[in-house]
Amino acid sequence: MPGTGAAGTGHPAMPGTVGTDGTGHPSMPGAGAAGTGHPAMPGTVGTDGTGHPAMPGTVGTDGTGHPAMPGTGAAGTGHPAMPGTGAAGTGHPAMPGTGAAGTGHPAMPGTGAAGTGHPAMPGAGAAGTGHPAMPGTGAGAAGSAEREAGEPRGAAMSGRLLTPSPNWYCSRCSDGGPGPGRRLGFGAKNSIFLLEVTRSRPLILGELTGHTERVTGFSFCPHASLANTCASTSDDGTVKIWDTETKAVLKEHAAHQTTITALHWSPLRKDLVVSGDEKGLVICWWHFKDDTQSFFPEPRHIFCLSCSPHHEEHVAVGYKDGMIVIIDIHRKGAVVHRLRGHDGEIQSLAWCPQLCEEGLLSRAESEAETDWPNGDPVKEETERFCALASGSRDQTIRIWNSSTGKGLLTLKLPQLKRRGVADLGTKERIWLTVHWPQNHPTQLVSSSFGGELLLWDLAKAGKQKWTLLGQSEGQNHSRIVFNLSSVCGEDARELLLSTSMDRDVKCWDLTTLDCCWTQPTLGGFVYSLAFSPVNIGSLAVGVGDGMIRVWDTISLQGPYHIKTLWQGIKSKVTSLCWHPTKESLLAFGTEDGKVGIYEIYSNKPPQISSSYHRKTVYAVAWGPPVPPVTTAGTGDGPALTLYSCAGEGIILQHNPWRLTADAQDINRVIRETNGIKHKLPGRSELSWKPDGTVLAIGNDDGSIEIFQPPLLKLLCTIQTHHKLINAIRWHHPHSSDPNLGFLIASGSNNAVVYVHNLKPVLEHPSETLTTMIEPFRTLTGHTAKITSLAWSPHHDAVLVSACYDGTAQVWDVLKDEPMCNYRGHTGRLLAVQWSPVDADIVWTGGDDFTVRQWEVSKQEHTRPPQGKKVSELERKKVNGLKPKSKKSRKKAEKCVVGQEGAGLLDTSPQTLLAPSVREEKQEFQGEVESASDETSRAPAPLEELGVRGNTESLPPTAAQVPTNQRRREQTRDERKREKPEAVVKKKGRSMLPLSTSNDHRSKEELHSDCVNLASILYAKGSDGRGQAGAGDQVQLGLFVDRPALYRMFQEEEKNHVEAGHPEMRYQLLLWKGDVKGALDMAIERGELNDTLVAMAPMAGYAVWVRTIEAFVKQLCFQEQYTRAATLLLSIHRVDQAIQLLQTHQLFREAIALAKAFLQPDDPVLKELFTSWASLLEKDGHYSIAAKCYLAAESPYDAAKILAKKGDVASLRTAAKVASITGERELSAQLSSRCALDLLSQRDWLGAQDVLRGNESLLGQRLVLCTYEQLYRRLAERELVLWRSINPPRYHGWSLCPEGSLIDSMLTVWRSEFGVTVADEGRLEAAHCQLRTTEYPEASANTPARLLQLQLSHELSLALSCVLLSDYAESVTVLLKVVVRCLSAGNFALMQEIGNVLFPDGAEFIPDLEAKLTPDPFGLAALQSLRAFLCYGQLYELWWELGTKRSRTLRASAEGRPDVGQESEEGSKEAGDGPRPGLLANVSGRYVDGATSEPRTAARALLAGCGCLLSADHARRQALERRVAEIQRAVAALVSVHRSRRSSTEAQRSGPELRVGSGPEVQPEMGPGVRPEPKSDPTFGPNPDSGARPKLETEPDVGPEPEATTRPELEVGTEPESAPEDGSKAMSSEGPSSSHCKQELPLREEGAVSMVSLMQELRDINQEQSDIAETVKRHPFPDVTESCLVLLAVGSLAPSLLPPALRDSALSLAQAYGTAKVQQIVQKFGRDTA
C-alpha cells in the first residue's frame, strides 16, 4: 500500500523513510530508481539496487547486510526488523500489517500484497537488466544478478540449467578438455553436457544431442589443434565425433555389434579413437580416412581401456575378470603383456603422463607385503619406462611397468570412517577410479569407499602414502565416485573434476586439495517447482530421484548454491509448497502417498503425516483450517493447515501441529454443509485464493468447484473443461486493477487453458448454485495436456503454461494473445514458475531431467509448434520401437540397473511420469494392448530391457548366436512342426513302483524271495517278519501282515517324493487311512488337490474347513480365483467369496454371486456396483459404468458418467437418464450443454427438441427461439456474424414476417411455448430463469456466436419484462443490448438491432414515457436508449450526405450528368453504394437523388436528434475529461522532476555509477493515464477505419494506441463513404477520445503546481457530486461528438438542420468541448454567419 517501501529486497518498509541508491547511502526523498537508470513511479523513491520500485517516502538498504535508517527493515541481515516493518530479506515473518513477500502465497490477514511482497508499479522497466520489462512491471538488480549468473558469457547457454546426472558405472563417461578452453564434458542419459571450468564457478556451454540410448563413454581430443572435437559412445551401438562449437556430429560408425563399454582418444594420434565392447572386441577408428580395424585380443568382457601417451601403438585394456592386457595395434592387436594381479573387475586405467626414471617410485614399504604373480621384483631400471595405474574392485591400486609387464607397487584402500555416517558394519559399494595428474608424475588421485578422494604420493616412504582431499566438513562426495579428469586452470593450477553417485560434479584445486565448487545435477523427472514467499529467490525443486533441492537463485555464494534434502523421503517428490509466512517450512508430497513437512534450516528428518494417501500426491497447499480443526484464534489450533490431494481422488487436511493425528477428508465437510448425497467427483487439484477466502478444487470430470471456508459452502461450479484438471492458479492480488484478483486460470488433459472471472460470484453470491459454462478467456495453441500454470507476479494478467508438447507458453490474458513460446526442453514439461525477482525470467522443469531458466524477451517463437502430439514425443523417446507388452514392461522394470538402479527408476516410460499424468489416453492404451501380442512373442533386446549390468547370465540374442547353431535349431524346430502327434494311450503310473520293479528281477532273486516269504509266514521262531516291507525286502510287504504293508508304503512314499510325484505319496497315505496326516502334509507343502479336498470330510468338520481354507489360499496364489470362491461357498463363506472376487477385480462374477445369495437390499451389492463403476470409468467404459451406477441407485453418477465423453449423443442420453430418474437439476444442466453444442452447428430444431419437456429450461428455450429469429433476420439482411460447416435447420415459425422482431417473438412465444400474460405463473417462472443468468461485458475478442447468444438472452429478458409490465427494467435491458453491440466493436450490428426491434423508429417513445412517468431512472434509461438509436441514424445520414456530395463533385469534374441520374448498379460497381439496411434506403428517406435537397424523413430524423444534446450529460463528460487531463499533468510533473533528479545524482556519483544508465528518461504516466499524441488530432468520420465510436462508459483514461490523424472537419466538407463492413467510421480511438482531451501545456516551473492541480481535482469531485444520479447511472453518447456531427450535416445540407438545433449544438460544443473542438465550432460559426 502507499507509504510502504521495498526495503532492501522488495519487502515493504514503514512510512517515513527514504530509499538508498545502491551504495549504502540514503537517497533524497522522491528520487528515482537510483543505480538502474530507469525512472521510478510518481512520488516514489529509489530502490536499493534490486530493481523493485519503492513506494513514497520509504527507506531501502544498501544490500550489504547493514541495517538502514531507524524505522526500516533489516534488509539482508537476517535480523528482525523494527516493529511495524517488514523483515526484508531475513526470512523471518514481518510484524502485523506488513506484506508476506514471496511468490504467490497468501499473506496473513491485514497484510500487504501477498505473492511477491513488493507491488510492481505500472510502467517501470526491468532495471539493470538491459531488457524491457513487461507492461506495468518493475524488475531489479536482484533479477539482473540472477540473469547474469545464468549467462556469464556469450558462449554459454542462455539462463542457468540443472542438468541430468552423469551416467553411473561407466569407466570413462566424463573428460576434461585440453588447452585454454578448460571444459568438462559428461554423458547424462542420452546427451552430453559441456561445462566451462573456472576456479570460481562452472558455466554450462551447451548440450550435444544425437544418441538415442544411454551414453557410455566420452573423451575429448587431447590435441590443441582439435580442441573443439570430442568422441562419445552409446548403448545405441554408435561411436560419434562431435564439434563442440556447432554442437553437430562430424562422423560416426556403428561397427560394434554389442554394448560398447570403453572409449579413449589417442593422445598421440589426432585421428585415432579406440573403443571396446562387452564381447572383447577392440575397434580402432582412424576418422580422417574413415577406416576401422577390429581386434580380438581376449574373449572377455572389456571394462575400460586407455591409449598410451608415449607409444602410439600401445593400448591398455582392462577386463571384468581382473585381467589387463597391453596390445600393439600396429601388429594386428597382438598382446604385448598380460598383467595379472587383480582379483576383481578392472574399473579404471591411467597412464603416467611422463616417462618414469630410475628410483622415481619408492617400493621400500610395499615390497614386503606385495604379491608378485608375474615374476620376481624387477631390478633397478637404468632407462625410462611407461607406468600404468589400474584400479580394481578388489580394493587395490596397482602400478605396472608397461615395458616389462611387471608390477611395481600395490596400494590398498584405507578403511576410512565416514564423517557423519554411522558404521553399520555392512559392505559398501566400491568403484575404484584412478587419475594421474598431468604435472605430478609421482602423485596419483583415486576414489575410495564412501566418496572420499585420496591423493597418493608414490615417492613417499612409509605406509600411509595418501592424503584426503577436502579436509573440511561437507566437501567430499557422499557416495562412490565414478570418473576423474583434470583441466589446467587460469593460473596454471590443475583442477580436478569428479562425478559421483550422489549426483554432484565437484571441482578440486590440487594445490590446496580443497573443493572449489559443486555443480548439482538431477536424477529424475522434475515434478514440481516452488519459490519461497518469504525468502525471496529460494526455489524448491521436487525430483523423481527421491530428493528435494532448495536452490538460492540469488545467492552471493555462486549461481548454484543448492541444499539437498533426502532424509525420510524414499520416493519420487511430486509436489511442493512453502509455508506463506515461515520461511523454513516446506511441505512435500511423494509418489507413494506420503505427505511431510521439512524444516530446511535444520538437519532433522522431516515430519511425516501418519495418514498416507493410497496413490501419488498431486498437490499440497497451505490454507485456513476447516472443521474439525480449530483456528489459532481459539488458542488451540494452527493458523494454517496443510492440504494434500492425491490420485485416489480425495483431499486430506493435516494438522501441522499434530501430524501424528489422523488427517481429515474434507469431502465430509462438503457433504454436510451443502447437503450432497450423490457421489462426489474425484479430486485432482486444489488452489487457495491468496487471501485465503476461497478454495478452488479441480475434479477428474473436468469441473472446478469454488468453496467458501470455513464450512466449505459451494458457491459456483465451472463446467468448461471436460477432462481431468491438472492445474489451477489464482491471479495475484497486487495488480494495478483489483478486479484481476478474481481471475482464475485452469488447465486440464485437453490442450486448452481457460481463465474465468469470478468477481460476480464472489462479490454477490447467489442463494442457488451458480454454474459457469463460458470462460472469460480461452487460450488455445498447445497440442497436449496442460501440466502446470503460473501467473507473473510482476505483470497484470500475464500467464505462463507448461505442456506435454514440450513447450512453455506466455499469454497476455486480457488481450487474449500469445506472447512467446519457449522450446528449450527435449521432453515434456511438468512444472513452471515465474521468477519473483526478475520480471523477464521463467523457470521450467520436465521429464528430460532438467530445470531451465529462460528469458521471456529472448524467445523467437510466439506460439507453440503445430501438430506436435504426445505420440511423437513418445515415439522419439523409444526410438521408433513399438510399445512393450505388460509382461515385457514388468520384466524390464525388474531388470533395470544403472543410474537409477540403486535408487529410483525414472527412465522407464511406464513408470510415474508426473503428478499431472493422472489419466492416460485410451487411444494410446489401445495401441499398447494391441502391440503387446507381437512384442511378447519376440525376445526384447538388451537395450529395451534396460540392462546395464552383467549380461553374461542372459541367453544370447539372435544376433549373438552363431549362424550354424541357428540353422540347426531352425531345422530341429521345423521337424518338430512337421511330425504329427501320435495318439498313444499312456499307461497310468504305478502306485507301487519299488515293489513292481523288485518283482521283475532275475529268476534267482525271485526264487530267493519265495524262500524268504515262506520262512516269514510258516517257519516257527523266525524274526524276519519285522524286516519285511523295508530295505531289500520291500516287495515282501505286500504278502505279509499290515505292519509290513505300511513299511512298504513308507518306502514307496520316499521313492515317489524323490521321483517328483508327491501326489502318489498322498494317495498312499489315504490308503493307509491317514486322511488327516495326508491333509496336514499337503497343506504344509501347498500341494492340495481336488482329490484330497474331497476326502477331507472323512477327517471331521474342523479338518474339512481348515482344508478348504488352505486350498483357497493355494488357488489364489495360482490366480484361480473363481475356483477359490466356489470352494468358499461349500463352507457357507459367501461374504468371503464375494470379497475375494472383488479384491481381484472380478466384479461381474462377484455381482452374480451376490445377487444369487444375498438379499436385494444388501449394501454389499451397492458397494460392488460402485467399485466396478469406478474401475470402468478409469478404463473409459462409460456406458457400462453408467449401468452399474443405475443398479447401485446412484442415477446422478450414472448421468454424470454418460456425459463425460462430451459429444451430443452422450449428453442427450445422459439428460434423458437424469430426467427419468428424477435428477431434474442435472438433467437441465446436461440438456443445456447439449443444446449449446447443437446451437454451434446451427441445428435449432435439435436444440429445441433437447430442451423440450424440461419446464426448468423454459427460459433457455425462449432464448434459443429469440436467437433463431434474430439470426435469420440478420442473415436476410446479409449480416451473418458466424457460420458453421453444417447447413442450418430452422423452425417453420422462424420465417421473418412483416413487423418488428418483438412482435414476431410475442407471436411465437404465445403459439409455440404457451407464454402469455394470462398464464402469469409460467411467465414468472421463465422470467426468473432468465434473470439468474448473467454474462460479462463484451469486448472485441468476444466470439460472434457467444455475442449473439448474449444479445438473444437480454432481448428475451426485456420481452418478459414487457409482458410483466416492468417497463423500466425492460428499457434498461434494451439499453444493455445496444451498449453490448458497441462494446463488441460492431456498430453495424447495433444499427441492425435497432432496425429489427423498432422498424418505425422512435414512435414507441411517447407510449413508454407515459408508462415510465413515475420512475425517473426508467425515464433516464429511455432517454439514453433513444439517444443511442438517434446516434446511429445520425451517422448514417452524415455518411449518405457525404457520399452524395462526393459523387456530385466527381461527376461535375468529369463533365458527366448529375450523379442523381446514375443507376444504383453503377454506384455499387464503383464501390460507393450504400450498405443494406437503414443506409440502403437513405437516398429514398433522407436525400433526393437528383437535387440533394432535404426530405421530410431527414428533417424528422434531425428533429429527433435533439435528445442527443443533453447539457447535463455534456457537463458530466467534460468533467471526466478534465479529470483525465489533470492526471496526465500530474504524471508529467513527476516525470520531469524524476528525470532532473536522476541526472543530478548521476553527475554527483561519478562515471562509474552511470554504467547502467540509459538514455534520457521519457515522462511516465500514472495509472490509467497515457501521453498526448504527437500530432494534433482532428475530427471527422473515417469510414475505412472500421472502429466503433467510443462510449461515455469507456472513459478516456486508460492506455490506448496512439491516435491516428483524421481529416479536419471544416464547413462544407463531407465524410468519406461508409465502410463496406458496416462498422462505424471512426479512428482507432473514436471521436470522444480524440476531441475530449485537451493537452495541458506545462508552463514554467511553479506555474502549474501539484497543489493547484489537487485543488482543482477536489473542485471537480464536488461538481460531480452535484450531478443528478439519473444522469450518472446510464451510458449516453458523447454530446460534443454529436454536436459536431450535427454541425457537419448542416454544413453539407444547410436547409436540413433546424436553426434552433444548430444553435443548441454550437452552444453545447463551445461550453463543454475541448480547445480543438472549440476551434472547429468557431469555423462553423463564421461560415454560418
Describe the structure using short key phrases.
five-stranded mixed β-sheet; single chain; alpha+beta; four-stranded antiparallel β-sheet; about 1750 residues
In a few lines, what is going on in this structure?
With 1729 residues, the protein is an alpha+beta fold.
Largest sheet: 5 strands, mixed
**Which structural class is indicated by helix and strand composition?**
alpha+beta
- CA gyration radius, whole angstroms: 44 Å
Which regions have little confidence, pLDDT < 50, spanning 5+ residues? 1-145, 147-155, 362-381, 419-427, 877-984, 1458-1485, 1488-1494, 1551-1646
DSSP, total strands: 57
**Span between N and C termini?**
57 Å
> What overall geometry do the principal axes of the alpha carbons give?
flat
Tell me which oligomeric state these chains represent: single chain
Strand portion, in percent? 15-25%
Describe this structure in words.
This protein has 1729 residues and is α+β, with helices and mostly antiparallel strands. The chain is built from 42 helices and 57 strands. The protein has a five-stranded mixed beta sheet, with helices on one face. The chain has a four-stranded antiparallel beta sheet with strand order 1-57-56-55. Strands 2-3-4-5 form a four-stranded antiparallel beta sheet, with no helix packed on it. The protein starts with 140 loop residues before the first helix and ends with a helix.
